[in-house]
Specification:
This protein is an alpha/beta fold. The chain contains eleven helices and 19 strands. It has two domains: 196 residues, Quinone Oxidoreductase, Chain A, domain 1 (Alpha-Beta Complex); 131 residues, Rossmann fold (3-Layer(aba) Sandwich), CATH 3.40.50.720.
Length: 370
């Protein structure tokens, strides 16, 4: 079938991307679903730093590639062997498919699936091959989703069905921002009841972590280099919010600190704010050549722990229903994470805004005007 999508033609283009125009938006051919796959009509797709990291070249991927990995939509057709979702169901798409058979899949979410990770790096679906073509040539899939398009074919291991009362924008956020940020709290940090948590980096993932921590009744302190983010953090339930240097100068410490900015400087700040015996969880994706400076003696003498958390160490089929129930009960106001709604043809300007840190989640809506 013919679809419309935003294909990244080259990485590392000169910003602003609204000027260098690394995307080509237009028609592609999408094959139907194979065994274990679904055809989904995309309703909403969030724009995340993991998309920007392919655009700016920090995450080299095979090109051309149809970007977008945080999305939700309605199932239109299913291939043989699909039982978890039927045509008409709304599904959340997640960017790390799980084969369920490799050693990593037996770690309860702690390690990313080996098979799924290999497929993501190759720009294919986890079942093998590519379903997207244009002008007779292949167009690669982004993290098994390719959600910046009117339709997508995805593996059933990349989706979780949700009830119809979950709006498309909320469903999309569940697939990356909430799984990643919330999972850093629930799955990776596991803070003691009522304890303090400091969150360094208040973008979409960091704010999602903040919302989940507040919902759990924790004392939450937000830290970000942008003052506007601090005001929002307070309005979302943070007991305090500070600039990085201010937090350090005040001597703030917490037994749990979550780094969600994806930079070496933010990681060092998170280490500095972690209390004796505490845990630093790093969930942000820094550039491959980024390096941070920490003291090994500090880790030993203060019995510190550093935990890496990819996709919030999530098991999507287990975790997404939990977040849905928290949202449905009014404890998780995920609507507050949506900073703007855009059209697909505004994707390059949206990447520029994301790069400045001024946006939480910009949402591409395919089922209604922006």
């Amino acid at each position: 079938m013919r679809i419309i999508g935003a294909v990244l033609e080259r990485s590392g283009a000169e910003p602003p991307y609204s000027g260098s125009r690394p995307f080509r938006i237009g028609e592609l051919e999408l094959d139907g679903p194979a065994t274990g796959e679904l055809l989904v009509r995309i309703e909403a797709a969030g724009i995340c730093h993991s998309d920007l990291s392919v655009v700016d070249g920090n995450r080299p991927r095979p090109l051309p590639m149809l970007l977008g990995h945080e999305a939700a939509g309605i199932v239109e057709a299913v291939g043989d062997g699909v039982t978890d979702a039927l045509p008409g169901d709304r599904v959340v798409m997640t960017f790390l498919p799980r084969c369920g058979r490799c050693d990593a899949c037996r770690t309860d979410g702690r390690l990313p699936c080996t098979v799924g990770s290999a497929a993501n790096a190759a720009g294919t679906l986890v079942g093998g091959g590519i379903r997207l073509t244009r002008d007779g040539g292949d167009v690669h899939h982004h993290l098994g989703v390719s959600g910046f398009a009117t339709h997508a074919v995805v593996s059933q291991t990349s989706v979780v069905r949700v009830d119809a009362d979950v709006p498309p924008e909320i469903a999309a956020l569940l697939g990356c921002a909430v799984l990643t940020g919330g999972g850093a709290v629930i799955n990776s940090a596991r803070p003691a009841e009522g304890s303090r948590v400091i969150i360094v980096g208040l973008g979409g993932v960091g704010m999602a972590a903040l919302l989940v921590a507040v919902a759990l009744g924790l004392e939450v302190v937000g830290v970000d280099a942008l003052a506007d983010k601090l005001d929002l953090a307070r309005s979302l339930g943070a007991t305090a919010a500070h600039l990085p240097g201010e937090a350090i100068d005040l001597g703030l410490r917490a037994p749990t600190v979550i780094e969600a900015a994806g930079s070496a400087r933010a990681f060092e700040t998170a280490i500095a704010l972690t209390a004796v015996g505490g845990t630093t969880v790093t969930v942000g994706l820094a550039a491959p050549d980024a390096r941070a400076s920490i003291s090994p003696l500090l880790l030993t003498a203060e019995a510190r722990t550093i935990v890496g958390s990819y996709l919030g160490s999530a098991v999507p089929s287990r975790d997404i229903p939990r977040y849905v129930e928290m949202w449905r009960a009014g404890r998780l106001p995920l609507e507050r994470l949506v900073s703007s709604r855009i059209r697909l043809d505004e994707i390059e300007s949206a990447m520029d805004r994301l790069a400045t840190g001024s946006e939480l989640r910009q949402i591409v809506r395919f089922d209604e005007p922006a």
